[in-house]
Design brief:
The complex is a heterodimer of chains A (115) and B (112).
Chain A (H helix, E strand, L loop, with lengths): L2 E3 L4 E5 L4 E3 L2 E3 L6 E7 L6 E7 L6 E3 L2 E6 L4 E6 L8 E8 L7 E3 L3 E6 L1
Parallel strand pairs in A: 2-12
Antiparallel strand pairs in A: 1-4, 3-9, 5-6, 5-10, 7-8, 8-9, 10-11, 10-12
Chain B lengths: L4 E3 L2 E4 L5 E6 L6 E8 L3 E9 L2 E5 L6 E5 L5 E5 L8 E8 L7 E2 L3 E5 L1
Parallel strand pairs in B: 2-11
Antiparallel strand pairs in B: 1-3, 3-8, 4-5, 4-9, 5-6, 7-8, 9-10, 9-11
The chains are: A mainly beta (115), B mainly beta (112).
Chain lengths: 115, 112
């Protein structure tokens, strides 16, 4: 069975602070994919990044960066110099390679960025 | 815009009724997924179709069913609705395999 844990249910920061959202996963698949999605107050799910299990290189996209560590089964997401528009619920998700390609989601972390 | 279209955006219906949610995947995507997002269960996978065939089933109730048509659009049918079925229902599509799953804007179902 697959499992994704986002231990932080809610985080509140002041604008311009850096913030890291934690994600820990469990899977028996040797090949798998990890994702982050953003759900703003309007409700849609916006794809942010996909990482496959063979690629542990960290990635940076503007103010966003991701740290994938297979040894600790973690895929953490950092927002640098947070902005009010970053306020949303962020979901980490896992897709295995057996029995379909569905996503298993974590419970989400609600990020509130105050001006 | 993800390219995945869901209709309707909002739906209010009474207990015991039946509704149909519709999803048009991104152009070229053969795989369609349905997810339910509720306050107590979070985001849960319901069912997946690939090129018209059911491929995987998750925590989908027997009162719920889905299908994918030859033009690749999909419908999720929810019957004998209960208050607890109130949720946000998402459709997603992807190229089968490692492709990203792109989500529609969701259908917010309220059962009263």
């Amino acid at each position: 069975a697959q499992k994704v844990t986002q231990a932080q249910t809610e985080i509140s920061v002041v604008e311009k602070e850096d913030v890291t959202l934690d994600c820990v996963y469990e899977t028996r698949d040797t090949t798998y994919y990890l994702f982050w999605y953003k759900q703003p107050p309007s409700g849609e799910l916006v794809f942010l990044i996909r990482r496959n299990s063979f690629d542990e290189q960290n990635e940076i996209s503007g103010r966003y960066s991701w740290n994938f560590q297979k040894s600790t089964s973690s895929f953490n997401f950092t927002i640098t110099a947070s902005q009010v528009v970053d306020s949303a619920v962020y979901f980490c998700a896992l897709r295995g390679t057996n029995a379909g390609n569905m996503l298993t989601f974590g419970g989400g972390t609600r990020l509130m960025v105050k001006p | 815009d993800s390219g995945v279209t869901q209709t309707p955006k909002h739906l209010i219906t009474a207990t015991g009724q039946r509704v149909t949610l519709r999803c048009s995947p991104r152009s070229g995507d053969l795989s369609v997924y349905w997810y339910q997002q509720s306050l107590d269960q979070g985001l849960q996978f319901l069912i997946q179709y690939y090129n018209g065939e059911e491929r995987a089933k998750g925590n989908i109730l027997e009162r719920f069913s889905a299908q994918q048509f030859p033009d690749l659009h999909s419908e999720l049918n929810l019957s004998s609705l209960e208050l607890g079925d109130s949720a946000l229902y998402f459709c997603a599509s992807s190229v089968l395999g490692a492709g990203e799953a792109f989500f529609g804007q969701g259908t917010r179902l309220t059962v009263v």
